[in-house]
Batch of 4 targets.
Target 1
Amino acid sequence: MWAADGALLRLRLPGGRIRGDRLAALVPIVERFATNGVLVTRRAKLELRGVEAPTAATAALDAAGWLETPTHERVPDIVVSGTPVCGGEATDARTLGHRLHDALAARPPETSLADKFLIAIDAGGVLGVAAVHADIRLDRLGARDWRIAVGGTRATATPVARVHGDADAAGCAAQLVRGVAERFGTQRLRTLTPAERTALTAELLGPLPAHIERPLAESDRFIGYDPALGHVLSFVFGHVPAAALALLAAAAGPDEIAVLPDRRLVVPELSAGRCRELRTLGAIVTVADPRAGLAACVGRAGCAQATTDTRGDALALAHAMPEMASAGLHVSGCRKGCAGRRASPVTLTARDGRYDVIRDGPPDGVVEAQGLTRSQVCTWLSRNDQSGERR
Ligand code: SF4
C-alpha cells in the first residue's frame, strides 16, 4: 500500500501481543527500510512507514517469519482488550481471540467479507476496547460468559446472544462471521438497521434470548504505571521511531508487549532511565501529559483534502493550552474526521486553511466559531472558557 510518505507495510499481531525478542528482530528491518519508523494503528497493527524498497523489505519480513499464510490472511481483523482486571476468575480475551482466530483459519468464510470487517473482544477494565466500532463484538459478562453483539461499540452494538465459556463463544462468533459472509458479502454490518441485524442473527444463531444483560461498565482510559498491569504508554499520534522500538524490545525481553487498538502499549517492565529515554522519543507515559488528549489526522502532510498542518497545530495548542488539550482536543483536516468521529470536548475542523471550532461535538458537529487561525483559536477558547459564553 502507498501513503503520502511512501510505501507502507502492515503487520498483524496475533492476540494483540508481541514478545520483546520478536520485536527486537523487527528493529533492524525498520531501521533499514522504514524511514518514518512504525505507526501503531487503530487495529493494533504495526505499520512500517516510508518504506523505500518495498520488495526488499517484504523479503526481509518474510525471512524473519512475519508474513501470514494465505489461509491466515483471510481471517478478519480481531482486536482484543488487554489483561483482564475486572476481578473474579480471569477469562482472558486473548485466549478467546486465539480460539476464534484458529476456528476461522481452520474453516475460513467461503465468500469475501468487507475489507475492514472487524471483530472486537472486550474483557472490560482500564485496558478495554469499549469504544472500538466493530462488526461483531464479544463483551465479557462476569467471569465466564460473553455477550455477542453486532454493528457498533460496546454501548451501541445490537446484542444478539449470551454464550457461556470461551469455546462456545468462539464457535458462535465463527458461525456468525461465516453466515455474514454468505449473506452480505462485503457489506459492513454497521450499515444494517437494528431490526435487520436481529433478523440476520436470529436466522444464523437461532431464537434470540428475551434479555441479555449489559457488559461491565466502561473504565476511564489509563496511561501510567500500575503494579497489576505494568507500564501503559502511548506515542504521539501512534508514531514509534525505530530507536524507541529498540528500547521497548530490550525492556520486554522474552516477555510480551500488549498493543491496544487505541494505540496504547503495555510493557511489563520499564526502568526509570528507559522511561526517560522513551519520553524524549515521543512516548506519553502519564495521563498528565497534555498530548495524551490529542487526536489529529495526517493533515496536509499526507492528504489532498487537508489545508492545514493538523498535527503541528495540535501539538502547538497542547503546549499553549495544556488543560484544554488534556481534556480532549481533536484537530481534523476536514469534516470527515479520519482520526475519529466521536465527540471531543474541543474539535477544530479545518476549512480553507483556517479552523471552525466545535465544542462537545464531532468534526461535522455544530460550529460555534468560524474561520479562525491557530492563535485566534487560543484567544477564542480562553475567552469563552472563562466567561462560559457560547457564540
Ligand atoms: S479528516 Fe479529511 S483531511 Fe484529514 S485525513 Fe481524513 S480526509 Fe484527509
Note: Residues 84-205 form a domain with the Sulfite Reductase Hemoprotein; domain 1 fold (CATH 3.30.413.10).
Target 2
Amino acid sequence: MKRNLLMILGIYLGLLGVCYLGMHEISPRHTVFLLVDAILFMSTLHYMDDKRQFIKGMALGMGLLCSIFIIRFLTPVEMKAWEVYTFLSFSFALCNILLILTAVIPHIYLKRAFVLLGGAIVLLVVIICWGYYFSEHAWLNVEAVMAALQTNSAEAFSYVHDRTGFMALVLIFFLAATLFLLVKIMCKVSVRKLSATGYVVLLVLFALSGVLLVRTSDNFVLSIYEETKDYQREYDEYARQREERQHNLAQNVTIDSQGQDGVFVLVIGESENRDHMSAYGYNLETTPWLDKMASDPNMILFQNAYSCHVQTVPVITYAMTEKNQYNTVDLEKAVSLIEVAKAAGYETVWLSNQVRYGSWGTPISVIADAADKQIWINSHQGNTLDTDYYDEELVNKLDEIKPGKKMLIVLHLMGSHISYQDRYPASFEKFMTDGNTGEYDNSVLYNDFVMSKLLDKVASWQNFKGLVYFSDHSEAIDSGKSHNPATFSLDMTNIPLYMYFAPTWQQDNAQRFSNLRQAKDYYFTNDLIFDTMLGIMGISSSQLTDSANDLSADGYNHDLARFKTLYGKKSIQDVVKK
Ligand SMILES: [Zn+2]
C-alpha cells in the first residue's frame, strides 16, 4: 500500500516536472488532473494480469496522442500549462478506458476487433493533426476544417495529394504499422482473476476514467471540433432565418431611397493577387487591358483594398451582406445585397462559374438563391474540381439576360482558383516561370481578357450604369502558402478593386463619382462592398447602411487604424507596417 502511494506521488511529480520543463510554468488548479491520472493509473494497473503489457499499451497510446504536443511546439501557437495538463489527462483517460475494456473482453477476436476500432479512432485524430501540419506547416484550425467541409471530396483529395505527395504515403504506411502494433500489444492486456468485488472496483475505475474524460474534453484538440460545430450552426441559422430576414425587410425596414434605374454589375473575382497584376506594378504584363483602362476617365483603380478574410466563404458572407467586421449585426439577421436590391425593386441575377456546393454548407448558395434568376454554368456540382467552361462562358451567358430597367447582376468567377492551370485555355499559356507562378500569372492574364470582354458587353447596353470588380481574397503565390488563415500573411489579402461608370451615371452622381476618384488611395476592406454597392445604386436606409462604410459617400471613414482582416483578428495597420 505504502509502495503504491509512493508510486502515485512519483508519477504525479514526474508528470508535473516534465510539464514544467516544457512550459516553464505551473497551473496549480489543473494539477489535480495529473494527480487523478496517477491514482487511476496505479489502481487500474493493480487489476491487470500482466502489468508490463498494460504499461506497454498505455505507453503506445499516450505516445501517439501526445505526439500532438510536438506540432504545437513546432507551430507558433501559444499554449498554456493548463492546456497541456488538460490534453494529457484527456489522452490518459481515453487510453485507460480503451485498455480496461480490452482487458475484460474475453474472446480474442472480439478483443482484436475492438482494439482495431478504438485504435483507428485515436489514430484518425493524430493523423489529421499531423497530416495538416505536413501539408500546411500549421496547427489545425476551425477555418481549415470548415473549408474542408465546404469542399467537395475530389477537391479535398486533390488538395491533399498536391500538398503532401510523398508524405501521404509515409503517413499511410505509418498508420498501418501503428495499427498492427496496437493490436499486437493491446490484445495481450487482460484482467487478473477477480472476485465480484474486484469487478465492482474495476467498474468504478472505468467510470472515474469516464468522468476524467468528460472533465478534460474542453481541450485544444476537441475545441476545434466544437468551434466548427458553432460555425456550422451559424451558417445553418443563416439559411433557416431567410424568411424572417425577408419579412423583417418588408415590415420593419424603411428604404429611404429606392435606388436609381439602370443595370449595375458586381463581379466577384477569385484568388487574385494585385501584386501579380501589371496594372498594380507587377513586372510582367499580366493585365494589358487593365493597364490601358487605368487611364480611362470612366475607370477607377483602387490601390489599397484588402480582403476581410482569406477564404471564399467567410469573405463573401460578409461582402454580400449587411454584416461586416465593424458592426455588431448578427450574421443570421444580416440581410444580403440581393435581398435589399429586390426590396428596392431591382431585378436580380446571379451568374456563377463556381461549383455549387451542397446548400447545407455555405451561405453563398443561400445568398444566391434569393436572386430572381440564377445561372450556374458549372454542372459538376459537388463531385469534382473541374469546370465545364472557362470564365469567358459567363460573358456569353449574359446574352440570355435581357438588360432590365432596374437590375443588379452579380457574377462569381472561377478566376485564379487552385489548380491555376485549369483556369485558362492553352492560348493563354504565356508565362513560363517555373512551376505555379507561371500558371498563376497565366490565370491573371486570362482574367484580364475575360473582364475586358465582360465590360465591353455590359457597357454596350443602353441602360448600363456601372461595374464593380473585386477579388474575394488574394493568394500568397510567392511564398506558396496559398490562402490559409493559419499561415496568414498580408499578401493573402492584397486584392484588386476597380470600378467603371457610364457617363450617364457620372452625370447623375457627380458628387459620388468625385468621392470615388478621391478615394482611389483610401484603405478599404471588401466586407464594405455591401454599403458601397448600395451607395452606388442610390439605395439608402438608415437602418441598413452607414456612410462611414460606403466608399462612395462623403462620410467614408478611411482611417487606416480601423481596418481589420481575418474577421477582426488582425489589424491591417499592423500587417502593412511590417
Ligand atoms: Zn476564394
Note: The two ends are 61 Å apart (CA to CA).
Target 3
Amino acid sequence: MQIVYYPHPSLRFQALEVKRIDSNLRTVVRKMFDLMYEARGIGLAATQIGLPLRLFVINLEADPAAKEDEFVFINPQINKRRGSDTDEEGCLSLPKLFADVKRPEAVVIEAFDLDGQLFEMDLEELPARVVQHELDHLDGAMFTDKVIDQHRDYVDPVLKVFEQTFRQAQASGAYPNDETLINTLREIATSGGVPDSFLTANLAPPAVEIPAGLLRPRRGRNSDG
Ligand SMILES: [Zn+2]
C-alpha cells in the first residue's frame, strides 16, 4: 500500500460505505496510520491509498507513540456545521503544496469505530478542519478545489506539475492508465470491503519534482491530511 498522488482517479472517486469490518480492514487501518506518520501528516483518507471506501484516520499529534490520539472514522457523517474560518492546509496527495481554505469553524461528526461502535465528536478549529478535509476526500474533493481566490494563481501551476508527472508516468507504462485504475476502484467500492489483493499491492506514486520557484513555505504548523 502507498499514498497516491494527484491526479490519481481515486482522488476524484465517490467512495462507498464500508460494509464489513474484518481483519483486512484492520490491516489497512494500521497501514494507513503508518503511511500517515511516515509522511508526517495528521490525517489520511482511504481514497488517498487507492481504497474507495468511506474511512479515514487522524492523529493530530502526528506522533506514532501517541496511540490515545489515533482515531478511525468509518462511514462518517457531519451532522452540524457552524461558523467560518480561513486557514492553511496541505495534503499528503499533493506534497509540499500549502494554501488557505475557508471552511465552517466547527462541526459535529459521527462515525463508527473499528469495533463497529457509533461515536460522535463536537470539534472546532484544527480538528474540525482536518475531519472536513478528510471527508471531502471520500467525496472526491481536494482542498485545492476550495482554496481562497487569492491563492488560486499560486496553486494552479503546481497542480499542473503533478498532472504532467502523472500523465508522463502513465504514457511511459510506468503507471497503470486511468481505465485500469478506475475498474479496480469500482470493483472494490461495490464489494464494500478490502480484497486480499489490495493488501499486497505496492505501487509507488511517480516522483514529483516541483520547481522551487513555484512553491511557497508553510506558514503554520503541520496540517497535512
Ligand atoms: Zn488531503
Note: The chain is about 30% helix and 20% strand.
Target 4
Amino acid sequence: MIAKKQGINSTSHAVYPLRVVRLNFFILYYEHMFIYTYGKEGVNYMHNRIIFHIDVNSAYLSWEAVYRLQQGQTVDLREIPSVIGGNEENRHGIVLTKSIPAKKYSIKTGETLFSARNKCPELVVVPPRYTLYMQCSSAMVEILKEYSPTIQRYSIDEVFLDYTNMECHFGEAVEAAHKIKDRIRKELGFTVNIGIGNNKLLAKMASEFEKPNKVHTLYREEIAKKMWGLPVEELFFVGSSTAKKLKSKGIMTIGELANTDPSYLQQWLKSHGLLIWQYANGLDDSVIKNNGVPMKGLGNSNTIAFDVTDSITAHQILLALSETVGTRIRNANKCAYVLSISIKNDHLISYSHQRKLDVPIASTNSIYENAKRLFNEVWKGEPIRHLGIYLSSLCLNDFYQISLFETKEKEHKKLDEAIDKIRVKYGCHAVIRSSFVNSDLSPLMGGVLTEEEYPMMSSLL
Ligand SMILES: [Mg+2]
C-alpha cells in the first residue's frame, strides 16, 4: 500500500527508485514468506512421513505355488526344495527365485541351475510364467490402492505405499500393515513382508528383516538399534564389490559406515560414497512416484449395529460417512463429478442411486447434501443395515472447471482443510460436529467399500 501510494502521489524521478526498492522488498518479503511456509510444511511432511514397503516373499515361486494349488495339485512348491529357473536350453539357466527349503541347500538367486542341481539333486525346477506374475502383482496392487492414493510399483513384487495421514481411516501403521498383509494372504494366497519407516529407504530395509509373512518397523529413532549392527553389504545399494572395498578399510557394519567421515567417503568412492553414507544414516528424501493405475473412485460404507428405520438417523450416518470419504478425496487432491449412495436393507438386498453433478465436489458438506438428497429420492422406507457413499469421475482438485456456483464449495473446502489438519495433528475425534455430541453414532464412519459388496456399483468403474 505504501509503495503504491508513493508511486501515485509523485511522478518525480527521485521517488521512482524508492518505489522500485519498496516493491522489490515486498516481492522479496512475500517470496520469503512463501518459501518459508512451504519449506516448513515440506520439512514437516518429510519428517512425519509413514512409508510402507510391501515385498512379496519368494514372489515367482509363491505365485506359481498358489497357481498350482488352485489347479488341484497337492504339492506346495514353497514347502519343498524348488526354484523358478530360466530356460536351460537357451543358456538362460539361472535361479530366479528359490523356496526356503532350497535356501537350506545354500542355493542362491542368480546361480546356474546346473550348480543348484549339484547342491540338491531332487531340486524341482519350474520355468517362469510372466503373465501369471503380472496378474498376481496387479491383484495385490488393487488391494493396496484401497489403503492410500499414493503408491509406487517399484518392481513386479515390490510396492511403496505412502501411509502418511491415513491413520484416521485404517488405524495405526503397524496395525494397518498387519491388516494388509493378512488380507493379501487370505484373498490372494501368498505372503508378503511389510516394512514401515519414515522414508522409502527405511521402509525397504525394514521389509528385509526376518521373513516370511512379517511386519517390521524401522523408524528414524530405531536406526542405531536395528540397522547399524548389520553387515555393510546388507545396506541397500552396497554391492559386493563396494562391500569388499569398505571391509578392506575396516568398515564392516552399517553403523561403522554411518560414522565414517562423509567427505572421506566422497573423495574415495565419489558420489556413490556419499549416497551410501546417507543411506547408512537413514537419510532419503525421495518421493513416491505415483505410477499406479489412476484412481477411478473412492467410497466408504458402514454396516450399522442396529436396523435404521428413520431418515434422521440415516442422514446422520451419511454425514459420518461424508466426513471420512471427504477427508480421503481431499488427501488424494481430487474432486468428484459423480456421487452414488448404496443401501442394504434388512433382507440384505442392496440398491444404489447416483447423480452426475455440474460442479465437482470435495467438501464434506457438499458430499453430505448430495448424499442426503439421493437417499431421500430412493429409500423405500424399509429397515437399513448398511449405507455407503461412493465418489467417481474424479478430476484433479487444482484444475477443475470454475463454475458460477462454486463459491460456497470453495469456502467449505477451506474449512474442511483446516479440520483435516487439526485431525491429523490432534487425532480423528479432536473436532466433531455438534450433532454427534449426544448421539450414540460415531462422528466418523466407514471402512472401505468393495466392489463385491456392491456389485451394482461396478458399472461405475
Ligand atoms: Mg520379493
Note: The two ends are 52 Å apart (CA to CA).
